[in-house]
Amino acid sequence: MTQRLRRLAYLDDSPNLSAPERQLSLVAGARVGDYFALLKPRVMSLVVFTAIVGMFLAPGHIHPVIGAISILCIAVGAGASGALNMWYDADIDAVMSRTLNRPIPSGRVERNDALALGLVLSGFSVILLGLAANWLAAGLLAFTIFFYAVIYTVWLKRSTPQNIVIGGAAGAFPPMIGWACVTGGIDISSALLFLIIFLWTPPHFWALALYKQGDYGAARIPMMPNVKGERHTKVEIVVYSVLLVASTLAPLATGLAGWPYGTVAAITGAWFLVLAGQLFRADGIEMKKLGRKLFIYSSSYLFVIFLALVLDHTLRLVGGP
Amino acid sequence: MTPVDVDRNDLILKRRRQRSIALALVLVAFVLIVYVLTFVKMGMYHTL
Questions:
Q1: 3-class SS string, A40-60
Q2: Are the beta carbons of B37 and A30 separated by less than 8 Å?
Q3: Fewer CB within a 10 Å sphere, N or C end of chain A?
Q4: At a CB cut-off of 8 Å and minimum separation 6, what does A16 contact?
Q5: What is the distance in angstroms between the Cα of B13 and the nearest Cα belonging to chain A?
Q6: Which of A27, A29, A66 lies nearest to residue B40, judging by beta carbons?
Q7: How does pLDDT run across A270-314, given as a tens digit for each residue?
Q8: Which ipTM value was assigned to this complex?
Q9: With an 8 Å Cβ cutoff, are A28 and B15 in contact?
Q10: Is some CB atom of chain B closer than 8 A to the CB atom of A128?
Q11: What does pTM read for this prediction?
C-alpha cells in the first residue's frame, strides 16, 4: 500500500498531507505553499529549462539582467497557465488519484482564488516580458498561456483523444520564446526546438495514459487508450516515437548542432525506440509496467536531448569539434 | 471560546499573516524588477 501511494505521489504536484494535517488546512485555509503548488512547479521547471536552452542557442546576445527577467516572466507565465488549468479542471482533478491532492480538490484553495491568481500572473508576466525583452516574445507567451488554458484545458482535453497532440504545442513554445527574447524573431532552428517537444508530448503522455487508464476513464477524459483502445495507442506511440527521434537528428542537418550532440541523440533515441517497441508487444500488467517505464524514460530523454544541445553549443563556443 | 477554538484562531491568523508577508514580498520584488529593468534599459539606450 505504501509503495502504491509512493507511486501515485511521485506524479503529484502538491505535498501529501496526513489526515490531521489536512483537517487543520481545511480549517485554517491555504498556506503560501498551496498557491505555489497551483503554479505546477515541476512543469514550470521543465519550461524554464527549455526556455533557457532556446535563449542560449539563439544567435546574438542578451543583457544578463534582461535574460534573467525574461526567464522569470516565462516561468510565471507557465505557472499562471497551470493555475488556470487547475481552476477549470478542479472537478476532474478530484476524481483522479494522481491529482486529488491538489490544492483545489483537497479544499485548501478556493477555485476563484486560483482563477484570480492565474489571470493576474498572466497579465503580469506578458506585460513585463514585453517591456523587458520584446513584444514578439511577449506575444508568444500570451499565445502559449491562451493555448494551454483555453484551447487545451477548456476545449480539447475533454472533447478529443487528440487532446495532448494539439495541446502539446503549448508546452513546445518556451524554447521558441527564449529564442525570440534574444533575436526578436523566429527561425528554422527555433521551430526545430518547438518540433522536438511537440513530437515528444504524445508518446510521453500516452505512455502515462496506458497505465492510468482507470483514472482517466473515471474522470471521463477521452485519452487515446480509453477511446481508441490499447492497440491503437501503442501503434501511435511507435509512430510518434519514430518521428520524434528523426526530429532530434534534424539539428545536425540544419547546423544547429554537431556530432557530439548527434551521438547522444542517436543513442538515447535508439533506446527510446526500443522501449516503444517493447511496449508495443506487451499486454496486461506488463504493458502497464512498460508504459510507466517509457513515461519515466521520456521525461529524462527530453532533458538529456536539450542538455546535449547546450553542451554541443558550448563546445563550439570554446572551439571544440 | 474553547482552547480548540483559540488554537484554530491562532492558526488562521498565522496563515493570514504568512500570506500577507508573501504578497508584500512579491510586490517588493516586482517593484525592484521594474526599477532594475528601467536602469538596464536606460543603460543600453545610452550606449547605443
A1: CHHHHHHHHHHHHHHHHHCCC
A2: no
A3: N
A4: A5, A9, A101
A5: 8
A6: A66
A7: 999 999 999 999 999 999 999 999 999 999 999 999 999 999 999
A8: 0.71
A9: yes
A10: yes
A11: 0.85
